[in-house]
Each structure stands twice: as structure tokens, then as C-alpha cells.
Amino acid sequence: MTARDEEGRDEETGAERDTEETAETREAPELIAETAATEERSTGSAPPPPPPPPPPPPARKRLLRSKDDRVLAGVAGGLGEYLSIDPVIIRIAAVVSVFFGGLGVIAYLLAAVFVPADDGTGRPAPGSRGQTALRILAVGALVLIGITGFGILVVAAAFATGLGYGLAVVGAVALLGVALIAASFGSGARWLIVPALALTIGVGVATAADLDLEGGIGSEEHRPAAAAAIPDDGYELGVGRLAVDLRDLDWSGGRVVHLTTRLGIGETVVAVPADICVEADAHAGAGALQVAGQESDGPDADLSVAGGSEATPRLVLDGRVNMGVLRVINDDTVDIAEHGPSWDWGNAADLRAANARACAA
Which pTM was predicted? Predict the structure, then answer.
């Protein structure tokens, strides 16, 4: 072999060695990356997944009149949904507000006129704002009818209780309660709460005022000619005007006359001569007391006049009125047959002075 052949073989060997080195150089980064990935998998240190996107902002609530939950105009239903409370609570509050100035009714009417209705998707229905006089009148008429009906139920329940039928009214309330419980398992009849509330208020008012209407209804005037003609249990009337004129009695000989009067609703008038001492224990559940020139009024009004007096002749009066006025007039000339807002039943100062003189004797 010649020297040239040996040189050619050396050159080929060097080229192969360069090729191998180049391949090894190109494969080294891939091996390093694969080795790093293997180590990461074995150690569990893979990078965390990206965070989820933030939730969209909640839709802004809007006050709308309810399309489905409505009795009149859907105001209570819409307000209940807006505030996340039962609409029945709002309806009861609106009814009760009638007894405290009626602001709830006014607010209901304004909302019925200016708050748009729901189109069923949570958006205002086109042209739903009550801007016409017809809608205002219609809603106002419905509310007025509802308030009137509620008031009639309250008064009817109070009268029935005063006439001695309170248990029957309580039974009606209990039946309404049973009906509400039964309805709760079906489609519901929450409107029954309104008449039940009205009946309950009526019974409560009659009970609180100790209303007694069992004496009949009308106008009665009694003029006993002698003390013995006065009933032992006195005079009683349920509703109306009760007048007792004692000025025809014989008051001579230091006579002491006891008189009891009971009135449910209305006016009681008792008249005695000016020189008779009036000793009175009077009470009004709600109303006014005017006894011999002394006065007291308001709820649970009480008035005691000349208590413990020993003067004679003397009238000892036990007077009660549940709702109304009780008047005792110690005057010789006042005509108690007359009555009304303009009736002149005497000067209070003169009546007080006359009774002071009579009770000091």
C-alpha cells in the first residue's frame, strides 16, 4: 500500500468521526429535553393548569310588576321578587297601612302607574307603564273596593263579637286557616289571608274595647217618675242613643239614687237637677266622658267625680260606654231630647261649680 492510499484512508476515517460527532452534537439537546421531561414526570412537578376565566357579572335586578303573581296590578308580586320576600307580607302591610294614614295604598297606586310590567323574561313589557287616566282610575277603584271590603269585614266581625257571636267569628277564622293549609298542598289560595286578617282584627278590637251590643239597637229615652221605677241593673243599649232624665224624681229627704248605664256604641245622656250632687265612676273603651263639667277622653278613658262624697241628695252613677260618649248634665233647663254636633249641653265651668256646691252640702 502506498503512502497516498494511507492518506486517503485517514481522511475517510476523520470524516466519519466528524459525522458521528456532529450527530451526537445534534442529538444532545433532544436527549437533555427528554431526560428533563422524564425527571419532571417522576417528581410530579408539572406546571399547574391555567386558572379558569372569571364569571360574568350578575345581571342587575330591575323592579317590575309581576306578570304571574298578581292580585291587582302585580306590584306586590314584583316587589316581593325584587326584595326576595313573600309578596303576601307586602300585601298585608299595604292593607294594615290603611289604619295608619294609608301611605301603603298611595305607594301601591304610584307603583301601579309608573313601574313597568314584566314581559315574562325579566324585561319591561313594551308600553306597559300605566300612563293613562283609565288605568289610574281602574287601579284606584279596585284598591278602594278592596279597602272597603276589608273594612266591612272588620266592622262585621266587631259587631258580631259585640252581639255575642264572637265564637262564630273565631270559627270562621279557623276554617279559613284550615283552607289555607289545604290549599298549600295544591295551587295555593293565599288571598284567604286577607279576610282572615280582617275578621281577626274585628274580633281583637271588640275584645280589647270590651264591646257589648246585646242591649239592642235604636234610641231610648227613660224618665222614671220614682226611684223605685229604675231597674236594679240599670239601663242598657247595644247601639244608639240612651237618655235617662232624672229631673222628675222626688229628691227630698236626703235621697241617694243609684244608677247603672251600659252602652255598646253611641251616646249616653243622664240629666239631674242642678242642686243634686253627682258622684260618678265612668269608663269609655274609646270615646269621651263629660260628667258634671269634668271631662276625659281617649282610649280606656276613666273619670271619677266626687268620689266618697256623703252629701245628699246624691246620684251615684256607674256608667260604661264601649265606644262613644257618656254625658251627665246637672242642669234644670237643658233639653236632652235634642242632640247632634251642635247640641248645647251647657257650660262646663257652670256645671262644675254647681256640682261642687251640691257635693259640699
Answer: 0.53
